[in-house]
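Q: Got a minute? One more chain.
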Amino acid sequence: MSIPIERGKIGQSFDDFLRSEGRYEESTNQAVKRVIAFQLAAAMKEQQLTKVAFAKKLQTSRSQLDRLLDPENTNVTLDSLTRAAKAIGRVLKLELR
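A: Always. Here it is, folded:
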């Protein structure tokens, strides 16, 4: 006698795994920061902005800009992200789900 195999789903989802490990929120925050850092860097490249020029637009230091663009650094304020988005002609949009 054979047991029928359910097709299409193998085990839990990756989100479920992260939740069970207590790492979902941390991982999500880091993923969001990576995307925002990537988008800022892409906009800088598109507008041919150097880090020095972008830092001047933000009225901040280059080292502070480096922290903002660092995908690993999730300790960035909403104010900093909003100012960076505005400086490159974009809008930061957040939503609760």
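A: DSSP finds five helices and no strands in the chain.
Q: Perfect, thanks.
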